[in-house]
Design a protein that fits this description.
about 250 residues, alpha/beta, Alpha/beta knot, Trp Operon Repressor, Chain A, five-stranded parallel sheet, 9 helices, 9 strands, about 15% strand
C-alpha cells in the first residue's frame, strides 16, 4: 500500500511515521508513505494556502487550487487516482471495521490534513471521496488524525507486524475487547498470575481468554456485543454477566 499525506506540517507526520514499527516497515518496503508540503503548490512568494471565507466569519479557509494541484501531482506520481480522504470532525468515525475496509479495498490512499476553519467546500465536493474522523472532538489540525489513520492502516498490512495474530487477537478486530495479559514475575505485590495461564494446557488457556474477552467487553463496551460473533452459549454467558453486574450496582 502507498499512503500520501497532504499537510502544512510534513515534519510533524514524519516524526511519528518514521519511528518504531511503522518506521521499520517503511525501511523494509512493507508500506510506502509520502508526506507532501501543501505550500509547495502555493502561488505567491509568501506560499499562502489560505484566505478569508466569503460571507465573513472567524478564521481562514484553505484554498482549493493548491490542494487540487498537490493531489494532481500525487496522481501523476502514483500513476492512478488514490482514494482521497479528508480528516474532518464531520466524517464517519474510524473503527477497526473501517480500517479493514480501507486496507481491503485500496492500494493507494491519499489523506488531506485540514487546518484553520477547514477547506473550500468545492474541494470536498469535487475531489474528496470520503471524510473520516477519529472521534467526536475538534483538534487544531488534521495531522494527528492522519497519523492515527495511517498507523492503523499500516499495521494491518502484510510484513508490517510479525504475523497476522498480532492484530487478529487485539481489541476490536474480532468484535470483542482483548483479554487481560500478564508477564513476569509470577507474583507481583502479593497478586498472582491466574493459574490457568501457568498450566500449559492450551485448550484451557484459549477457553479462559475467550471468556475474559467476553467479560471485558460486557463490562466496558456492552454496545459492541450486539454485533459480536458469539455462539448461543456465549450469549447466555453474557446474560449472566450482565445480570450479575446489575445486581452489584
Amino acid at each position: 500500500m502507498r499512503i500520501d499525506i497532504i499537510t502544512l506540517f510534513p515534519e510533524m507526520c514524519e516524526a511519528v511515521l518514521s519511528e518504531s514499527i511503522i518506521g521499520r516497515a517503511r525501511k523494509n518496503d512493507a508500506v510506502e508513505i509520502h508526506c507532501h508540503q501543501l505550500r509547495d503548490f502555493a502561488f505567491d512568494k509568501h506560499r499562502r494556502v489560505d484566505d478569508a471565507p466569503y460571507g465573513g466569519g472567524m478564521g481562514m479557509l484553505m484554498m482549493a487550487e493548491p490542494i487540487a494541484l498537490c493531489f494532481e501531482n500525487i496522481c501523476e506520481q502514483v500513476g492512478t487516482r488514490p482514494h482521497f480522504i479528508y480528516m474532518s470532525p464531520k466524517g464517519r468515525v474510524v473503527n477497526q471495521q473501517v480500517v479493514r475496509e480501507l486496507t481491503g479495498e485500496y492500494e493507494n490512499i491519499c489523506i488531506l490534513c485540514g487546518h484553520y476553519e477547514g477547506v473550500d467546500q468545492r474541494v470536498l465536493d469535487r475531489l474528496i471521496d470520503e471524510e473520516l474522523s477519529i472521534g467526536d472532538y475538534v483538534l487544531t489540525g488534521g495531522e494527528l488524525p492522519a497519523v492515527v489513520l495511517a498507523d492503523a492502516l499500516c499495521r494491518m498490512l502484510p510484513g508490517v507486524l510479525s504475523s497476522d495474530e498480532c492484530f487478529e487477537l487485539e481489541s476490536h478486530y474480532g468484535g470483542l475487547l482483548e483479554y487481560p495479559q500478564y508477564t513476569r514475575p509470577e507474583v507481583w505485590r502479593e497478586e498472582a498470575v491466574p493459574q490457568v495461564l501457568m498450566s500449559g494446557h492450551h485448550a484451557n488457556i484459549e477457553k479462559w481468554r475467550r471468556e475474559q474477552a467476553i467479560c471485558e467487553t460486557a463490562r466496558r463496551r456492552p454496545d459492541m456485543l450486539e454485533n459480536a460473533p458469539l455462539s448461543d452459549k456465549e450469549r447466555a454467558f453474557v446474560a449472566e454477566i450482565m445480570q450479575t453486574e446489575n445486581q452489584d450496582q
